[in-house]
From TrEMBL:
This is 6-phosphogluconolactonase. It comes from Methylocapsa palsarum. Residues 12-225 form the Glucosamine/galactosamine-6-phosphate isomerase domain. The keyword Hydrolase applies. The gene is pgl. Belongs to the glucosamine/galactosamine-6-phosphate isomerase family. 6-phosphogluconolactonase subfamily.
């Protein structure tokens, strides 16, 4: 991770979600013809999605410009409660006027996790208009990420071969979690104007401090981007004690 990311510290998790949601609406307003938002799974962003899909904020985003992607997904049907697509759909997508073709979900109806990964790589390349990433032209305007207790982010887990992948845009990760995962790789996640980590709760304090300390054994600490990294945290996750 680049040294000295911007850290925004909120009083509590609710305020953190509000600040992140408002920051996102501002970013969307600054966008040109398209605004691409790469979503995270996990429990922390759920409230952000609810706020973006809620009566107060949804009208502040021109959803006709928005394109939604997922940094990672569990290889379960979209109707499964563990699906990252379902979480974002229920919290936000169902409540906003985004054209269906601009919701770029990871297809979990593929025959295998690997096929799902390949299909998603092709979908991303199609949107981007190239199969190689130009450092001057980020794929995403914003990538949202979480931080797992073990330092994972997206579905990049400690010790996994996915961490070394530089060529494939999307890979399958089998045998780490009960269900296979599909995840974007570092070069793709990093191709973002802004990377926003959402981290809340005292349970994340120690691991966040290790990530900020640059412990490169932790996948989250190895995110690199030519854009900006911002951490939206609450006091419990950030304070010394
Ligand atoms: O699909 C997922 O689960 C993720 O994308 C994952 O990387 C998540 O962001 C972290 O595990 C933090 O999750 P919490 O926000 O629930 O702590």
């Amino acid at each position: 991770m680049i040294p000295g990311p911007f850290v925004d510290v909120a009083e509590n998790a609710e305020e953190m979600a509000e600040r992140a949601a408002i920051w996102l609406t501002t970013q969307a307003a600054l966008a040109g013809e398209r605004w691409s938002l790469n979503l995270s799974g996990g429990s922390t962003p759920k409230r952000v999605y609810e706020l973006l899909g809620g009566a107060e904020l949804r009208g502040r985003i021109d959803w006709r410009k928005a394109h939604l992607f997922w940094g990672d997904e569990r290889f379960v049907p979209h109707s499964n409660p563990d699906s990252n697509y379902k979480m974002a759909f229920d919290a936000m997508i169902a409540h906003v006027p985004i054209p269906a073709a601009q919701v770029h979900a990871i297809r979990t109806d593929a025959d295998s996790p690997q096929e799902a990964a390949d299909l998603y790589a092709a979908a991303l390349q199609d949107y981007y208009g190239s199969r190689s990433i130009d450092p001057e032209r980020p794929l995403f305007d914003v990538t949202l990420l979480g931080l797992g207790d073990d330092g994972h982010t997206a579905s990049l887990f400690p010790g996994s071969s996915a961490l070394e992948e530089r060529r494939a845009w999307v890979v399958s990760v089998v045998g780490v979690k009960p269900e296979p995962r599909i995840t974007q790789t570092y070069p793709v996640l990093g191709s973002s104007r802004n990377i926003l980590f959402l981290v809340a709760g005292a349970g994340k304090r120690e691991i966040l401090s290790c990530v900020l300390g640059g412990d490169l054994s932790l996948p989250a600490a190895r995110i690199e981007t030519a854009g900006a990294i911002r951490i939206f945290a609450d006091k419990a996750a950030i304070s010394a004690g």
